[in-house]
Queue: 3 jobs
Job 1
Amino acid sequence: MEIQQDLKDGYENEKIGFEENDSHVDGSESSDTDDSEKEREEHYALERRVVELRKELSKSPNAYNTHVELISCLKKLGELDQLQHARESMHAIYPLTEELWLDWLRDEIKLSLSDEDKKKVESLFLRATGDYLSIDIWVEYIQFCLAGMDIGGAEALEKIRTVMEEAIRHGGLHVVKGGLLWDSYRDFEMAIYQSTKAKTETENINQAKKITHLFNRQLSVPLLDMERTWKEYNDWLEILDQKVETHVKASYDKAKIQLEKISPLEDTLLIAVENDDKAAVYRTYLDLEMNEIKDPSRIQALFERVVAEIPLYDAFWMDYCKYVDRQFKTAETTFAVFRRAVRNCPWNGPIWASYIFAAERYEKEDSFISGLVQNAFVAGLASAADLLAVWLGFIEYLVRKCKSDDSEQIVQLREAFTRATEHLHQSFDIEGDPECILLQYWAYFEAKKLNNMPKARELWRQIMGQGHGKSAQWWLARIQFERAHANDVTEVRKLFVKSINAVTSLDWPELIVKQWLQFEREEGDLQTMDNAQLRCDARMEKVKKERESKIVKDLDTGKGRKRGKTEENHDSVSIPPKKAKIGHNSASTTKSDTGNTTETRTNASQPVKPITSPQPIADPCRHANTVFLSNLDFNISEEDIRSTMSSSGTITDIRLVRDYKQRSKGFCYVEFSSSDEVKEALKRDREPLKGRPMFISPSEPDSALKHPAFKYQSTLEKKKLFVKGLASTTTKEDLENLFSKFGILKDVRLATFRTGISKGIAYVEFEDEVSATMAMNKTDGTTFQDRVLTVALSNPPPRYDKKTTDREELSLGGGARERKTQLSFVPISILRQAKSSTMPPPPPPLGAQKSNADFRSMLLNKK
């Protein structure tokens, strides 16, 4: 406390000294008074902010940015005890960055006056080097050791050498900064050599050998500025009157070749700004090291660089864990990496599952593995797949250690299966395990390990009841399971009967028929085969009729759509009048009152020119200054649009599209005076206007380009959260108040229907990934406005181009194939008749027209 008070007094004295200097310069007492008053106001403001930050942390202890701001405020206030506590609290939750560690270490070094204080600083350095690879922290550690120890003592020298070797082991292979550690080590040994010149010749020779050995080690590592080290090595050998050894030259040449290979990647990393760009370069870098150079130490060093620079990229942590586990095969090294991986990416289920697997391999106790599972659930898993991965990893462990005669282990395993299925269902409903992986695994365990087929059948009934009862593939899987584990012919036959009636005509019941008949060939007799054939024929006859009726329905619907489209085109395109037909239905002649004039009216009268709506002018310059507004209220006026959009810039023209009755069609074009104003207007997309969200997009001169474009990403976004379960009355401001306490918000988007009513979902985007992760962990499963929220990282399913999917489908082979039209379902009899006919049919009479009933009779081959 006295030391801390002295430091605080020192801060105050420095502050007073600065104030006195300012007073001498200014020569004004009023200036001093103003400065001190301003400082007091800033001091009080900081104190109030500290109170606010502590309140926020009491509610949200995982708010990363709040921790950082609290540390900054306490440091400015000089509250050293509170500052240390704040740093410890943050480190208990998160690994600290290089900047935070260096700031903490330098503050503690200033206070380390006694040997006990120095030991505390050393332990703090060890904690700092355990979070991430940081060359600057190692250099700071080396300088602290050199400044605070007696170099003259043998014990102190060995201790410093130990620190130097640890620094080289961790960061000596760093291509860019590793040379700093090597140079520090050589400078240290060179200083000792200079001090031992006055001593015995033996000591001088031994010390010279140490320096030479350091040169040899450094020259075998590809580092930047290797030529300078090579020159210093040659100068050193001249002092010793020695020559370069052959193996040293060979190692140096090999390292230079390796440096030439990786130099382009290092140059790219130097100019890369975005983390995604760095990740792509590092992925190429790792492939080069693992496939060509193949040095395990260098690969591990590169992994350390990657996770230190982009620590939230869970794919690299996963690869690092797998590599260390398979390459080094030591529990200490493996667990050290896994601990850091789950600390940096606690949301990743596969990393937790691999951690559980490694713990089992190294024979960790049950309590350790159970603790991992609980920690994973508390950490906040990102999705259903992550939660399922953790449960599967834990259950696999229990299955492998379970013995069929151990009732306690069986009970424990069944409880785990039950808890897992309930947990997934409560958290994600049917999406928790859509493929029923857990239930299938459970059924397999009951049937294979415990010979409990009744329980296994009950589990399969649950599986089929989860939306799979009409699928041929799921029924075949159920039947295959029965045959593999029980082979009860009667039970299998019952399943075939159920499946043939349950599978819909659109899901290929032919597969069930084929397998059933094959089963009867293998296991049945004449009677059962005959019975199966009768049932299959009857079912397939029904399937045929269902498919034919669907074809007819689709054809009728298709004709209706085509006719409607034609009529729509007739309204907008002028059609030349047809020739009048002679007949009582085609024309009528009437006399006028005077009897001198006749008027002929035909069915194909002269078309009336429709009222045209305003169209955008085909001027590229004007299109660049125009936006397209859609989803507007039909009662909206141009004045409403002008009053709303004028805040984005100067409006030169508004073209509200109307129908022939001059009613709004719900969309319009708004032209601004400049393209910059257009950019401002586009930012207001989905802004509500009269209760409906406006869809604002650029004006496209080509009508073919006016299809709606999806402007949001359809991949995993670690800075954006997907929130569902919201009340229909929830507003954007409510969400901002809820999530702003976890970090700086970049955007909050509340999804609505075209009518403006909320869909109950929203997207919340933060400035950084840490804030997003913490917000997800804290709000997922909580109650907000009497609704339970489900919060996860935004990871929507991939979107497909409708133009592509309308024409092509992916085949099982991975390529594109033609989509079969509905004509593929025409009965075979009609196709055979068409093929057998060599002459084309005569054309129908000009006046004959067929109705839908005629076409239906022709299609079904009715006379």
Job 2
Amino acid sequence: MATLRGGRSLQRLSAIALSCPRARAAQRCPPIATHLHHRPRYLSTTRACRRAETIDAFPSLLANTPPELLSRAAPTATTPQTLTEKIVQRYSQGLSQGKFVKSGDYVTLSPHHCMTHDNSWPVATKFMAIGASKIHDPKQIVMTLDHDVQNKSEKNLKKYSQIEEFAKSQGVDFFPAGRGIGHQIMVEEGYAWPGTMAVASDSHSNMYGGVACLGTPVVRTDAASIWATGRTWWQIPPIARVNFTGILPQGVTGKDVIVALCGRFNNDEVLNHAIEFTGHSNTMRSLPVDDRLAIANMTTEWGALSGLFPIDDVLKGWLRYKATEASMYKAPSPTASLTSDRFNHQRLDELLSDPLTADKGASYAKELFLDLSTLSPYVSGPNSVKVATPLNELEDQAIPINKAYLVSCTNSRRSDLAAAAKVFKNAATTDATGKITPAKIKDGVQLYIAAASLPEQRAAEEQGDWQALLAGGAQPLPSGCGPCIGLGTGLLEPGEVGISASNRNFKGRMGSTEAKAYLASPEVVAASALAGKIAGPGWYERPEGWEGVRSGEGDGIAEEDRMISIEDALDKLVREAEAAVLEGEQTVAGSSESAPASPDKESEVETTTDILPGFPEKVTGEILWCDADNVNTDAIYPGKYTYDDAFSSDPAKMATVTMENYDRAFGQVARAGDILVSGFNFGCGSSREQAATAILAKDIPLVVAGSFGNIFGRNSINMRLWASKYPSSSDASASLSPTAGKVNKQSLDSPPPAPMVTPAKQSALTVRTGWTFTWDVRRSRVVVVEGEGGREWTQRVGELPPNVQEIIARGGLEGWVRKEIEGA
């Protein structure tokens, strides 16, 4: 079968320089780039763009909406919105007339598509338990099997069979085990469509942003709600703009871009934000779609809820190719609709006639920039995405490896496999007779490969790339998540070092907690497998006069290079004036207001919050202190238990492994009724709702932290686990435990500091403090008593919104949906 293809280098061909008004600026303007857009496909499924129907929002959202938001007066048509806000506007229901959604708004959301994977059966059991029998809109739902595809046990095969039969009975598009990773299927089959919103019960739904589809994760309970009603709730997060400048150099990939972003902006700058990537058209042309998918995919690890690229010429070319390919290869699937139902030129004509773009003057919570031309190959780790090191520095350390992985939805598409195969082909030798001897991986090293999907593997086979990797000693695995999620063959053993082209290297994620995991591009993974140590292929050459990576706040464009219209100039002046007025108001307010309340004194006027029927007014317990930041979901509930449905449905069993990857002693130290208090970014990582239910299984009703991973916060609400941030007006983060920050302070998302003298007595990871924490919901305050007869102090906290109370009071989102179905 003939196909059009080109390697990474063909995707970034530079042409003539862009003409600029000043000679000096002309030297800095990025050159125009052209590309070959490829990617054949064999299986497919999509449908015409479908807008959400207008249905009532959650009752509490409408009942408690301020009158000004329900006003029928229409806002002006020029209300500037970000691209994220525009897409959410399309898929929000129950909006008042003329309402333009904005960051911070709670909306009732009916996404264009919702994908579930191996967790489809647990979702189905929730769906049936709430009294639902028929999926609200079968065309909205996609089911895939991808996580535990190597597991051939009777129990797992039975679950897979149940999912397939359920999908068939409901008329839902279904993709069986071995067909591919769900996120890749969503993209290559056209479910993730530009300008739409798609969700999935998996944390890497962000990947859809690589094709300008707003992708964000939901959890199993949300998915059951969407199955039953077509909708769920969502709060529009703060939106950050990340501006790219320059041209990505030869030998540097999209993986290097996102690894550098995670490492250079590693202080939670984009935590729980929606990201929009922007840049000059020539800059964006140096980022082909596959690189965009890798970048968007790992915005999850960066802490963001989405990573959205624009609808531009690069994407348009890729879409046209896909539509042509779909029309040529209409291979029918027995379990899903045709790809050409989604990828077709008529639908593209409609999309491209009026593509969505962010409005000029749209408001962003923050703006960051990265100069791509200053990047070199990067490596993430060990065991952290927040530590990114230039490859050349690690090469100098000659770090030996035991295992290498070309797997996952991040970097195992055909272009990634081609890049890795090129490393092997270049290292092959030819004797005097012309016989070619394939390059082999280093003795003692194991290399595992698994394509992102079956069509991607077939394309790699047609190009000879798959065979080149096998000839070099690679061990093939079925298309699926496998080692990336810590399931199946090839996991890291204690003491081993691995390097992977996947997306997540949390401690214990890919095997033993005593192993080390690094992340890198496919080229670097392949070169490392050949060398037996972390190494690169040598394709990158540092530019003359290089002075380091340019990144920081703002858009990164030098003022002398900036060309703006009169409208843009006026908009800039208005924004600067507004900022000056706000600064003045804050200065005046600061000089006239009294000092903030101390932990011992409440200076604010007490207000009360209405408590819905069935919702408790207070929760109280002893503080159980876990002195760590970035306690991820793998630490709270290990991945090896996540897809064992029998285990995860038994609270007694779950309680025995709660916080196991954080502290194996946690189960013996924790008691029923404790209040778990920890550091910042608690619950980051995957979307597994068991991280919340495992804590509940230990009879812990409340978690208090400096901040939460958004998906964990969402799970907490859906599963009726209370969660509260430290009071922002005090140093409570250092006051909620007598040992806070004094000894043993650690981060589970970054390696420990350099070796230090071990103290005579190591502090326990989990500490019983003897202190009491009480959250008074009606008065919106917390009261801490520092042990029997100790100091008592009070702090104000935010009100608990009525819609959140409503979900918790009904026993979680399942209970809410059940009530809605009963009342329908």
Job 3
Amino acid sequence: MSQLPAFTLRVPENTESDGQEPSPDNEGALHSSFCELIEEQSSLVAGAIEMELQERSREPSALLPPLDPMATAGLEPKQGEQHPGYATTLRILANMPSHTIGRSRGAIISQYYNRTARLRRRSSRPSLQQLSHTARPSLRQYDLESDPTNATLADKQSLLAKELLSLPPAQRSQVLLEVPLSLEEKRSLRRQLSQRRSTPGLRVHSSEPTSPCAWCQDCIVLGCRTLWYRFLALIHAAQPWHYALKQISGRFGSSVLSYFLFLKTLLLFNIISFLLLLVFVVALQAAYPPAVASPRPFTGLELLTGAGSFTHSLLYYGYYSNTTLNDPSASSPSGSTSPSRATQLPYNMPLAYMFTIGANFFATCILLMYSMYHSFLKSYRVGSSTGVLAIKIFSAWDFKVVQRHSVKLQSENICTQLKELLAEQRLRSCPLSLPQRLRHITVLLLAWLLALGTVLGCVVAVYYFSELMHMVQQKQGAAAGSVWLQEGVLLALPFVVSLLNTLMPHFYNLLAAWEKQDSPEAEVYVAICRNLLLKMVVLGLLCYQWLSRRLVCSAKECWETCVGQDLYRFVVMDFIFTLLDTGFGELLWRLILEKKLKSKRRPEFDIAQNVLELIYGQTLTWLGVLFAPLLPAVQVVKLLLLFYIKKTSLMQNCQSPSKPWQASHMSTVFITLLFFPSFLGAAIFVSYTIWWEKPSETCGPFRGLQTIYQTPKVWVELLEESNPNIAWFGWIPQYLVENTVFLFFLTGMVLAVIYFNIQVLRGQRQIICLLEEQIANEGEDKKFLIQRIHCIYDDKVHCA
């Protein structure tokens, strides 16, 4: 039976071209190029049209390839009759590059054989133009062994393996990755390559014998590469909670995963802060402890109150000395200078304390800004997510996963992501009508009025209760009552504040159920705003009271230590109420649903409340780092326990979200809220304390100074007195810190960088839109080409 001649459009593979390609904007050049292409294809098809018409009358319909009805709906005639050029169109479509994958393996192998041969010849010998006519190879030497167009599929595979074997290992791996063959065929090629390398008789004849030095060099390189890959795999596996985060993402989606990623980020910040304070302040003060009179015995209540034996310890500000540690001029208690310490360097503890706190806030600010920038690029630069669904379906599977449990975990993860994408598209396709929008806006206004009213009521209640507790503490101090009762009263205010912070989010959840937000994402954002407003206003009130009562507290001890103890109690009490809310809010509610109500539903993980608990606890840590240098260590222990407790409760007590939604921007929102108002508010509070508040007179590293900020000035004056040659050093704090010009310049540079990044993101979005439009235009070009081929076929039929 006759067959149509196969025709292909030969395009050179190299990207360099001598002439200039027609621009996509030049429609005339594109039209002329399409016309030339059509004429070329029609000249090849014209000789086989008659044979095709004869074959169609004899050829059974079962031999025709199956046709996709969606792809050919626009090509079929309206009356249900088959178009005369139907078979020709199928053959043209079958010869398109996108339809050859998986069917024309011989053509693909031949193409990559030619490419591999060119790579080998390009790297092994000079170009043909540089050789003389006598040295050029003859075309008569080409036969079936070297011409892959006339060979069978097995011969082509053998030729390709032989050419791959002659390439360097890097190019060989790259070519194997680029070959559009199945994994089984690539494995077959790799097996052939390994057999040829291992069998001496099957080696390439052109390869030279390997010397012992070259063999040792190859072994050393291969061993180093293997060790490097194992080291990279070890680093990847050593990431904290790598498997646990994958498990959470597979079962509960990206929305719940964003909470644990945020917790991991906070843990990193606190570890960095703790290491800075430990190395430069805490460890050195522990090496040279000050004299402490009559330390109190440990009773166990200090773990809750932070008072008692913890008062005069490394945990609080009042323990640190205001002297130069290891000073050579310092005398021993007997009055003589210690010769063993005279050879060591002195260490100014007040200066180190102040600059370490400043470096801690500066490093945290840099890390926060980098995290915001990285998260913003990751979540917002892609633009619309209209094509993500197809990418997830066809390109999301990782074929390197071979273990049964990992395969199950990855399939769950992909299914959850598909649910989130479909839910997002479903929300976009169901807009509200005008009456529904008006009713929804009215409900939102009433809910926000109730939320703001509850915030105001909570702030007033905290204010009056704190005043009452302050009066009770003064009366107990004057009466000299029981120590347990005095320290127990200290927990009353943290208890009330933590109770409000735990109960009010549940009230806001009732408001959210009444509001019926359009999407779960909007519901989470609204809950975060309300909880954040409540917590930040209460913290602002507490900061004002701590600074206003410093004179009353400093009558008996350091007011900085009193503030540090209050912040420690708030951190501990917040952790206790978080555990209680996890137990009663998730475990108890699950038992009630399963045992009493006989329901299969479980409580859902409240993202807004849990995230705001993390932000609230981190804000307390940043507020207290000046008054309690070891408070970041307490926060590290708290976050570690929270991760395992929350993960266990999530796996055992909670269900996946009933309305799946994609949390692509949640991490960016969490980091932004952590930066403002949490970090900026704590930085303002600490900066105000350093610049304006007077330190305690009897304790702490800054005793005897009017403000903490005077510490570098005093140190510079001492340096100028000891060595007048470094008098120029005094202009650094004067012109870089006190002068506002430098601060304005630094702020302008930061704003310029932010503006530049915003413009880059806008440009990336415009480029993405242009590329999407170009892809759509290429699809229209293919439709236009198929229509022109039909027209040419109709003209040929009429002329015949």
